[in-house]
Amino acid sequence: MGRKSRIMLGTVLALAMVLSVLVAAGCGTTNYTGVTGQNKLALSGSTTVLPVAQEAANEFMKANKGITVNVQGGGSSVGIQNVTQGTVDIGDSSRDLQATETSAGLVDHKIAYDIVDIIVNPGSVQVKNLSMDQIKNILSGKVTDWSQVGGSPGKITVFVRDSASGTRDMIDSKVLGKGTPTAVTNVAGATELNSNGLMKQNVASTKGSIGYISSGYADKTVAAVNVGDVVPNLDNAVSGKYVLSRWLHMFTKGQPNPLSQKFIDFVLTPAFQNGPLAKDYIPVSKVPGGTGSSSATGK
Amino acid sequence: MSENKEIRLDDISEAKKKSHSAARKADKTAGAVIWVAAVIGLLLLAFIIVTILWRGLAIALNPKFLTGSPAPLNQSGGGILPMIVSSLYLAFLTLVISLPIGIAAAIYMSEFAREGLVTRAVRFGADALSTVPSVIFGIFGLILFVTYLGLHFSLLSGALTLTFLNLPVIMRNTEQAIRQVPNTYREASIGLGAGKWYTVRKVVLPSAIPGIMTGGILTMGRVIGESAAVILTVGITTSIIPVSPLDSGAPLAANIYQLYSEGALIPDYLKIAAGEACVLLIIVLMLNVLARLIARHYKKMGSGRFV
Amino acid sequence: MKLKGDWVARKVFFVAAMMVVLGILLIIVLVTKEAVPALTKIGPFKILFSSKWEPSKNQYGILVFIVGTLLTTLGALIIGVPLAIGIALFVTEVAPKKAAGVVSNAIELLACVPSIVIGWLGLTALIPLLKSLTGKATAFGLLPASIVLAVMVIPTICAISVDAINSVPDAYKQGSVGLGATRWQTMRHVTLPAAKSGLVVATILGMGRAIGETVAVALVIGTANVFPTSLLSPTNTLTTKIFTDIQESSGIQHSVLFVMGVVLLLIAVGLILIVRKVAPPITKVS
């Protein structure tokens, strides 16, 4: 072969090799379409769900090369709004739908169960148990000193979540009776914190303080109290003895598209549920009424 | 009679001495107070820099921290490379969009426009944009770019929002630089038969480049240090390095806030926040020093480009 | 060809300049649009002049936040203006050249420290200090917020004050010194009064910065929807409330947050008009 033809042959072979490598890399991922593009999945919503959703996204992307999952926050309301508008595939939420959101045709996928602890500052508060009424009185400001609930004298500093938080909504409903004729409101001067992390840090560093937090965030810097002599753990939550708990949701508009379904299925696999998710939340399989999606019609 | 005069003169000089010493006392006290004010200012800066470095430098100088990605849930040892890239990418994107617009607007205001309704409206608009709180920019960007235009949380949404935030700064710096170009240059160029646009392009702009560069670097510093507007338009957490402008990201400032709020599931989140704050401060300070070095360098060189 | 290039260039640059006007108009229109539902359903008076914020009872009074914004700004100015003008006098009148350069550079560096860093330091260094000094359980409130804001406005006020003082004609100062006045007498009776309008502009621009600061205040103010009872009791401001609630809010509460945005915009525009009244020539240059 002449020199020129050898060079040409070499170039063609090289090109062929490069092309085949590219084709091979592209193969193996079937093409899914999400609302943000091909092989792209977008989530937004509750910042409570965010860490778990992000973790699921990371694991999902490792197992499905070629697919990008983008998780952002914005809050439960933003997530629900985005998925209703169709700008994201899945909207994360730490609360149920409100009356105005139920007609959007959203489908509810419960992905985790969350127990909410009542926490107090461990160094200064010796009280280990509070009844629902006592918690209600403390949160509403009727009771202002620890001595009134069996502790040593000290001013009670109340921390609550922000008024649109799903956690606050749940506490307000179940403890303060929100929505019932005998509802009371949180004490007017309570500091509103808009995240679990801030709640934990504030209760941990403020003497005589009380607050509430997702149990996954609680660590030894805060002390969880029993509610009505019921320990906040999984068994009591499942059996209904411990009432301060709620679902975490992923909403889709109508039935999920194949990519969203793949992701939600992944989130619901036992490996993920009993692995990363179980460190902070409760797998849905352990709670009755959890498995299976349902049409979201709100509370 | 002369005795009285002498006495009065003595009295006067006595009184003068007294008021003079009183004035000197006041001067000394005032001087001391002013020195104290200056020292307080220095101490404030020193306290901020020393505390941030003390808390975060050891963490920040770890190569694994600077080049790694965030750790999986509940694990420590994560890195912040996606956050650094997000910050720099966002600054770059904002510059790409806002520099041309800002420079063009400044050229219009200083070279082409005549005083009138239009210039007054533009000045008012620029003043207004620089007084609007950053959180308002944030909710504006959230409504317009993230939701309405469907760009959702992305670097592009952030860049577009921050463009409006930074236009006044770029305009001001460019205008200042342009106005410093002596009119003789312009007259010479026009006298030689060049058109206005040609004059601007070949004569005015080159001399204004240092000012434009300063404005650009200051904008970068501002973008990287911005938190509220960025949290609401770009995002607060990520594990992948953003590639396209439509990807979301987690700029350093936004991520620090996120770590402090919901990040508590990561065991060493406080350390990561400290490290991020340190990296953030160093980047911003370096940019600021760079901008001033450039300004000083060109000042020294003078506008003697054409001499 | 020359003239055509000019014509095209002029149009292009005009459009660019109008982007500024477009920007502020868009912001005003969008924020107001989102505020309309609350304004029509509840009415501006009930929102602006009521201090009861209890969304579960449909009460959306934002007076607490307006007062919080005003008080923190006032506190920031009380702490910041004397310090800033003192530093400005140091740099321009009192200090030897080298010291003036050092301080001047330091203040410029202070200006570029990100607000989240200052807020974070306020939360993790200032508040524990206040807690140990006063023995109180929480140390959120007006005091740490004012201190944090003061740190952020000092560079702004200082820079503009330096300009104002430097633009007092030398002849004035020399005349005063020639008459035998001390440095302080000159400053007090000649320089400062002559620079007054510039100093006022500096203060107002500092006020604008203080009103608009968000994250730094959010971390130290205590976010409680009540009036403060002391310098160290938790309260709230307009910017903080908007920032903390915007993401999770919906419906009417969402709209009320935009009403707060409208209030902030009105304050911003008001400040600009005041500055222009006080010192028209200075605003033209900027």
What does this structure look like?
The complex is a heterotrimer of chains A (299), B (307) and C (286). By secondary structure, chain A is α/β, with parallel strands linked by helices. Chain A has 9 helices and 13 strands. In chain A, strand 1 (33-34) and strand 2 (37-38) form a beta hairpin. In chain A, 50% of the residues are buried. Chain B is an all-alpha fold and 307 residues long. Chain B is 78% helix and 0% strand. In chain B, helix 6 (155-180) crosses helix 8, helix 8 runs antiparallel to helix 11 and helix 10 runs antiparallel to helix 11 (269-301). The N and C termini of chain B lie far apart (73 Å). Chain C has a domain at 66-254: MetI-like fold (Orthogonal Bundle). Chain C is built from 13 helices and 2 strands. With 286 residues, chain C is an all-alpha fold. In chain C, helix 7 (170-178) runs antiparallel to helix 8 (183-194). Chain C is globular and about 70 Å long. Mean pLDDT of chain C is 88; it is low at 282-286. The longest helix of chain C is centred in the first third of the chain and has 40 residues, at 2-41.
Compile the SSE list and pairings.
The complex is a heterotrimer of chains A (299), B (307) and C (286).
Chain A: H1 3-26, E1 33-34, E2 37-38, E3 40-45, H2 50-63, E4 68-74, H3 76-85, E5 90-93, E6 106-120, E7 129-130, H4 132-140, E8 157-161, H5 166-174, E9 191-193, H6 196-205, E10 209-214, E11 223-227, H7 234-239, E12 245-253, H8 258-267, H9 270-274, E13 294-295
Parallel strand pairs in A: 3-4, 3-5, 7-11, 8-9, 8-10
Antiparallel strand pairs in A: 1-2, 5-12, 6-10, 6-11, 6-12, 6-13
Chain B: H1 2-60, H2 63-67, H3 81-112, H4 117-131, H5 134-148, H6 155-180, H7 183-191, H8 196-225, H9 228-233, H10 252-261, H11 269-301
Helix pairs in contact in B: 1-11, 3-6, 3-8, 4-6, 5-6, 6-8, 7-8, 8-11, 10-11
Chain C: H1 2-41, H2 44-49, E1 53-54, E2 59-60, H3 63-94, H4 97-111, H5 115-134, H6 142-166, H7 170-178, H8 183-194, H9 196-212, H10 215-220, H11 238-245, H12 251-278, H13 280-285
Antiparallel strand pairs in C: 1-2
Helix pairs in contact in C: 1-12, 3-4, 3-6, 3-9, 4-6, 5-6, 6-9, 7-8, 9-12, 11-12
